[in-house]
Amino acid sequence: MLRNLDFTGVDGPYRSLLPRGTFDVDAALDVVRPIVDAVAIRGEEALRELSERFDGVTPESFRVPAEALAQAAAELDPVLADAFTESIRRRRQVAESLELDPAPSPAILANGARVGLRNIPVDRVGLYVPGGLAPLASSVIMNVVPAQVAGVASIAVASPPQKEFGGLPHPNILALCHILGVDEVYAVGGAQAIAMFAHGVEGLCEPVSLVTGPGNIYVVAAKRLLRGIVGIDSEAGPTEIAIVADDTAKPAYVAADLISQAEHDPLAASVLITPSAALAEAVQAELAQQVDGQAHEDRIRTALTGEQSAIVLVRDLDQAVAVADAYAAEHLEIQTADAEAVAARIRNAGAIFVGDYAPVSLGDYSAGSTHVLPTAGCACHSSGLTVRSFMRTVHVIGYTEPALLAIADGVEAFAHAENLPGHAAAISVRRPR
Question: Which of 199, 264, 296, 331 does the annotation list as catalytic?
Fold first, then answer.
């Protein structure tokens, strides 16, 4: 089912040879630009037209009433409610213990000369939660919890309206918003939601400082178009998994994990990197067996047989690590004899799942980690959504007169060297006369 790529005779560079799907954000900009402009100019009137065109339903109110949020939470299946609560608890614990970076003590550079740091949360964020092929209620947790831990004062959530729920977002999304104490929720989807957050809509939604959350190519295009007017987390593309596995890995586990990501999207990427031809063959057999009868079988087959998915056969685990680093997967699983040691050698990945019992599905819901992660090889330079994503670092500089005068000659010389005499004058005016 997966195509085979033989890298055993290849010594790199690997990046251009690895399987990648096409995700042309620039082409989507032409579709998104008139949507964004319409929302900016005509506000709620445009939202109504766009909602009917793209979602097939126009909500009675784009802002979801608080009663609907409370009702969704009250009607949750008790087992699901417990699962939501535990997922929130674990994500919050990780955010508070690992990601909340307090300001360190100021650096004392000389007597009377100090530079400190203040970590300041953004004032207001707009969090986007997809509702297309899969209503990702888990993205509510992954967006809201780190924003709350960061101390963001104003949080708004948007998710597409659903015909089957009377123009409201999916009930699970509403329930999680209620459980998390978020009452500013909008039944707005796609590029128009990003435009609403960036420009604001008079009488409905105030502009935000930052937009985060995953979405389809039109959501990504809107983020690119509006970046600068509003901050964004990333331009995330279709999801992807890479698995580094040797002959100790269990083929059934590997196959199931490849399928789990393929289930997201026909463009999802599933890549196995292995030095074991026997494992590769066994995984192919497992895929053939496990895919049959899946609820989203057509979607899974499309993803697994696409250009973005493959089994990459390598010489040994050393080459496997090099190939995995070149791929820089959103999700990277390590299923090898010494998984901890192999994982410690990885430099480029959005998140690393170590061993047979840490599948990506765990991270999607209740591992405590974030699941909003860089895709398309961006893990070599970008990080997932954490508390720090919602904070700005501000230097705070304090110098006494003696401390300034001690380096005044050098600062003035530097300013004159850059032909900026006004800069030098701002120092010399402070010299004693």
Answer: 331
Can 330 be counted among the known catalytic residues? Answer: yes
Whether the predicted pLDDT of 133 surpasses 90:
no
What 3-state class would DSSP assign to 152? coil
Q: Is 169 exposed, middle or buried (0-12, 13-18, 19+ CB in 10 A)?
A: buried
- Predicted confidence (pLDDT) at residue 131 exceeds the cutoff of 90: no
Which domains, from first to last, does the chain contain? 4-23+237-368 (3.40.50.1980), 25-103+122-232 (3.40.50.1980), 400-428 (no CATH)
Tell me what the mean pLDDT of segment 360-382 comes to: 94
φ/ψ bin of 372: left (φ > 0), alpha (ψ from -120 to 50), beta (otherwise)? beta
- Amino acid symbol at 28: A
Pick 132 or 30 by higher pLDDT. 30
Helix (H, G, I), strand (E, B) or coil at 210: strand
First vs last C-alpha separation in the chain: 83
Q: In sequence order, what E strands does 32-176 have?
A: 107-110, 113-121, 124-128, 154-158
Active site residue 60: no
**Is-contact 326 12, C-beta < 8 A?**
yes
Q: Which residues partner with 230 through β-bridges? A: 227
Q: What is the pLDDT of residues 230-247, one digit of tens each?
A: 999 988 889 999 999 999
Closest to 51 in 3D by CA, of 149, 168, 225: 168
Q: How far apart are CA 10 and CA 85, in angstroms?
A: 48
Distance of CA 121 to the CA centre of its chain: 18
Quote the pTM value. 0.92
Cα(339)–Cα(341) distance, rounded to whole angstroms? Answer: 5
Show contacts of 43-50: CB within 8 Å, 24+ apart: 43/201, 43/202, 43/203, 43/204, 44/201, 44/202, 44/203, 44/204, 46/192, 47/188, 47/192, 47/196, 47/201, 47/204, 50/190, 50/192
The alpha carbon torsion through 397, 400, 405, 408 (nearest 10 deg) reads 10
Which one of 99, 330, 333, 412 is the catalytic residue?
Answer: 330
